[in-house]
Design a protein that fits this description.
Ferritin, mainly alpha, single chain, 0% strand
Length: 269
């Protein structure tokens, strides 16, 4: 899926913290002490239940009880903070830099709109948590547009509407597929993240502005986390995740290495 010429972090609370087990323990029948019991339960819940519950229908709606994924949430907040706290712009933007900023603003909005709609369809908490991250992403780009005095193409636009015709069609195609099943919906999510990673590669190569680079890098880091989460969800169906846009080698490194850092040369695969 190649970026059009006229167009051109993360997850937010990705992992659900499982509910505390109740009524499972008769202390009179246990020979070990309370400390051992608590350690055992913690290991069981975090090691087994956490990832499974991530892909279960949410029982609490968008406001979920989560803490285990807050460390992975940092890139989204970093992207927003980078845009808000960056130094004043140095120099003018090139035409290419402007095109990339305008496109990425709507591309991040597309991710937000799709994930929000798929959450409403399937009630999978994964989509609710990542959509919150995408809200930060698109807001971070909007802050950069304001900083450089560019008109925001997504200002006040309702979900599913885009000024870029390529993104408008992409949204319709993704929504059509994502409505078929939860598995299809997760493949849609993974494809969105692969597209985002590739387009951010291009955008990063096309700018020398430190404030813009910092925001792009943090958003891309979030996309790595999101792709990993969707791929693991697909694997719960017994299917290994196959790359849809990026090279398989790069995707494998992303999804199987939580410490993989796009800042180490994200475009070098």
């Amino acid at each position: 899926m190649k970026q059009q010429h006229d167009d051109e972090q993360i997850p937010d609370d990705i992992f659900d913290e499982p509910p505390q087990p109740r009524g499972l323990i008769d202390r009179s029948n246990w020979a070990f002490n309370r400390q051992t019991l608590l350690i055992g339960l913690s290991s069981m819940v975090l090691g087994i239940g956490g990832l499974f519950l991530l892909f279960q229908p949410s029982q609490t709606g968008p406001r979920m009880q989560m803490t285990a994924g807050q460390a992975a949430n940092a890139p989204a907040q970093f992207a927003q903070n980078a845009a808000l706290n960056a130094p004043q712009p140095v120099g003018n933007l090139s035409q290419q830099e402007m095109q990339h900023l305008l496109y990425m603003r709507e591309e991040e909005k597309l991710a937000l709109d799709v994930y929000s709609a798929l959450y409403q369809k399937w009630k999978l908490s994964l989509f609710a948590s990542i959509s919150r991250s995408e809200q930060r992403h698109t807001s971070a780009i909007a802050n950069l547009l304001a900083r450089y005095g560019l008109q925001d193409p997504a200002a006040n636009s309702p979900p599913g509407q885009f000024s870029n015709s390529h993104l408008a069609k992409l949204y319709q195609d993704l929504m059509q597929k994502g409505q078929k099943s939860t598995l299809d919906a997760m493949h849609v999510g993974a494809l969105i993240e692969e597209v985002d990673i590739q387009d951010l590669d291009t955008a990063l190569q096309g700018t020398n502005k430190p404030d813009i680079q910092r925001v792009y890098q943090n958003i891309q880091r979030g996309s790595y986390h999101h792709l990993r989460a969707f791929a693991h969800g697909i694997e719960l169906y017994g299917q290994p995740y196959k790359a849809q846009l990026l090279g398989q080698e790069r995707v494998n490194q992303i999804i199987h290495n939580p410490l993989f850092n796009p800042l180490n040369n994200a475009a070098g695969f």
